[in-house]
Amino acid sequence: MKACVVGAGAWGSALALVLTDTGHEVALWDCDPRVIDSVNSRHRALKLQDVELPETVSATADMGQALAGASIVVAAIPSVALGEVPRAFAPCIPEDVLLVSATKGLDGNTFKRPTEVWLERNPSLEGRIVALSGPNFAIEIARKLPAATVVASRNPAASKAAQSAFMTPYLRAYTHWDVAGVELGGALKNIIAIACGLVEGMGLGYNAQAAIISRGIAEITRLGATLGADSLTFAGLSGLGDLVLTSTAHLSRNRQAGIAVGRGESMDSFLARTGYTVEGLSTVKSAVKLAESGGIPMPITTVVYRILYLGVPVRQGLAEIMSRDPRPEHE
Q: How far apart are CA 60 and CA 65, in angstroms?
């Protein structure tokens, strides 16, 4: 069996390792020659702390070569690439090939979910497209530490096929039908993780972070339900599970970014210092637009946006949240 993984960053490299453990030969596609050289000459994942890759993994910048003979394509691209990469790749995916989208974000121009973008570029993918999301740090997956993830598709056969491709002794893959809920949970939790980081950076304690997580899942669920997701999905692995992981663990880039800003560092300085991709930065802009268009209250998301893009001081943003009108929790 052969798999094509689009994007040889940390997440793509980790998923390539999983696929090799389920019997696949893997072709990693990337446009960065340094990444390709690292894989092919040293068999190491350049963007995954130099993790060693088996000989069954190769890398190429040639799209045709990467897709040749593949029975499954895994798109592990950042959300900022949702405009360019699907436009190039989607029409070239053969008709009998499964596509698994592992992007945790939204398209910054259209505010669409990743699977919606891929389907727009190739409508024939309907019925064989799957969303993968869950509480998964790439480095821990690569080190084969125990984890669980979700593969969601409207076609049960497609989700079952993806489950088989990613089920290993260290990674449990659960199927789901709610593609919208799984994708939105994976995207929107990054905003709440930034908020938790802001609270941590200001030294405001664990009570505040627990409140942010709890109220954060509430507003994620409100927006998700409005966009067609099942509210219960956000109580699962791709919702609350991923939210807790990303909001509390030191490996979380979104949380680290929030901590830096909470301590007074600018976001531009943090990004330049670390070289990180922080998905929540673009997702928060999309989420605010979606919330405004649907009349959905998302106070934490709105405050994070105001802090990051409108120059509102962090403490003023916190004060705005704490001074909102009293209300029942169950709303």
A: 7
Helices (H), the chain: 10-21, 33-42, 63-67, 84-89, 114-121, 138-142, 156-166, 179-201, 206-226, 242-248, 253-262, 267-274, 279-294, 299-309, 314-322
Set 2, 144, 189, 289: catalytic member? 189
Q: Which amino acid is at 17?
A: L
Residue 331 pLDDT > 80: no
Is residue 160 flagged as an active site residue? no
DSSP letter for 237, please.
I
Per residue in 237-259, pLDDT tens?
999 999 999 999 999 999 999 99
- pLDDT tens profile 88-110: 999 999 999 999 999 999 999 99
How many residues does the structure list for the chain?
331
Closest Cα to residue 238, out of 149, 155, 111?
Answer: 149
Question: How do strand 25-29 and strand 57-60 relate by DSSP bridges?
Answer: parallel
Q: Which residue, 148, 79, 143, is CA-closest to 117? A: 79
Residue in 214, 195, 217, 116 with CA at minimum distance from that of residue 225: 217
How many other C-beta atoms lie within 10 A of the C-beta of residue 94?
A: 12
| Domain chopping of the chain, boundaries | 2-177, 189-322
Cα dihedral across residues 189, 195, 200, 206: positive or negative: negative
Model confidence pLDDT, tens digit, residues 41-59: 989 898 887 789 999 999 9
H or E element, residue 133: strand 129-133
Going by CATH, does the domain composed of 2-177 fall within 3.40.50.720? yes
Q: Which two tokens stand for residue 228?
A: 């067609």
Contact 52, 44 (CB under 8 A): yes
Cβ atoms of 74 and 5 within 8 Å: the answer is yes
Nearest Cα to Cα of residue 133 among 164, 99, 176, 169 = 176
Q: Would you say the pTM of this structure is higher than 0.90? A: yes
| Architecture, CATH, for domain 189-322 | Orthogonal Bundle (1.10)
